[in-house]
Design brief:
alpha/beta, single chain, six-stranded parallel β-sheet, Rossmann fold, 2 domains, 13 helices
Length: 375
Amino acid sequence: MNIAYIAGWPIPSRAANAVHVMKMCQAFSKHHTVKLYCPDGAGQDIEGIQNLHQHYGVTESFDVFPIEKKEGRLGLIKYAFQAVKKAKKNGAEIVYSRCLMSAWMATLFGMQTVFEKHSSLDGQGGVAKAVFKSLIRSRHFNSLVVISDALKEHLAERFSIPYDRIISAHDGADEFPSDQQPAPFVTGQGKFHAGYIGHLYQGRGIDIIAEMAKELDNVQFHIVGGKKEDIDFWKGALSDLKNIHFYGYVPHHETIAFLQHSDVLLAPYQRKVGGYNESDNTVQWMSPLKIFEYMSTGIPMICSDLPVLHEILRDQENCFLCVPDDSKDWVEALRTIMGNPEKSSDVARQAKKEFLGKYTWQKRADYIAAEIEKK
């Protein structure tokens, strides 16, 4: 297939969706021709990148076409029109997009279209819902891709979408590299390192990590990611703690070193989890990249016990699950891991085995492509 992937957000960006898009384009490109169309990331929250593919740790197996995107609805419509027009000119057979306007525009151009959705439309306005309904009723609509079975059930019921038009595919990650990276923090005998990689949005559980750091002064907590204002806030609030360290934004391909040198990895999602714009609660539908990146490492993971994550995780089998907002439960789980290295290793190995069998980006892309071609 000749696939035009049309993104809805600037690339490069600090948002996880930029990682998702770049990794999926690479995975699709193993067996298909792929061209990525995206809003120009110049002047966004990351600057000075010389090589976009290298920044995201992907091969140059697909071309990237930046397109100007101005603010507002008219800016979005113009961007979608330009992206779809260019994709059609370049011979695309399938338009694949996480941008609703672009997906809908592609059907107006008579192009087979796949739309990927990571949340419900409940918090969006009437225009978005109308566009979505028009999209799924178009004869050029191929499939809707979602990231959890819970979201599939919700959207199928809410919009009367046939089940065979919805592809449920959890997020993914790359296989974890075996070559050892230099330690990004001070290691040594007697030191136990807990790692967190991700944003500091509302609901990401940094307050839980802070409580853990207060209770466990023999553990070093390393937090990678976050906006400057969030980091400044937490640094100020926790200035008396010497065992919690903030590193700020780190390019995605460089986070491997932090993962490799951690003894446990933390995913303390709360009962309300915001996205990049901090407006939506994704806790019912999410399939976080972080979970799969953690599973790929073979390092024990502690994660919040949330219903949607039961599609992937099982307590004491491939992870350690905790009550999301109970810091004492998290402290106890970490003590369990520290005191039972054999059990912890068995759990981590099982997670890695399941990751390799189900959740690599390549397996995700191959599964989705096969489902698209059936339509």
